[in-house]
Write a structure and sequence with these properties.
mainly alpha; two-stranded antiparallel ribbon
């Protein structure tokens, strides 16, 4: 998965954008509101999607493109984003507002 094709990169990017949009806009699950927060989710979500197949494995041989397996990529993106948001929320102190 180190040297992926441009199409694989785009597939991971689309997965990341969709997962980030669901978490940020639909579920309102974020540290800060705004577009910058959404963009940071897209970046970390892409990393999670990229790591999804090596971590979760190769599921459903027909639902893949080259080495990108769609379901593990979605799970990886969700996992990294939820862990990232929870970590930031737990380490930042509330200002009382």
């Amino acid at each position: 998965m180190i040297g992926i094709s441009f199409i694989s990169f785009l597939i991971l990017l689309v997965i990341s954008v969709v997962v980030s949009a669901i978490l940020h806009y639909a579920l309102k699950y974020y540290v800060r509101p705004g577009f910058n927060s959404f963009l940071s989710k897209v970046i970390f979500g892409w990393i999670g999607a990229w790591l999804g197949t090596p971590v979760f494995g190769k599921w459903f041989e027909g639902v893949n493109y080259e080495e990108v397996y769609i379901i593990p990529a979605i799970l990886g993106s969700f996992a990294i984003l939820i862990m990232m948001i929870d970590w930031v929320k737990s380490t930042t102190k509330s200002t009382g507002t």
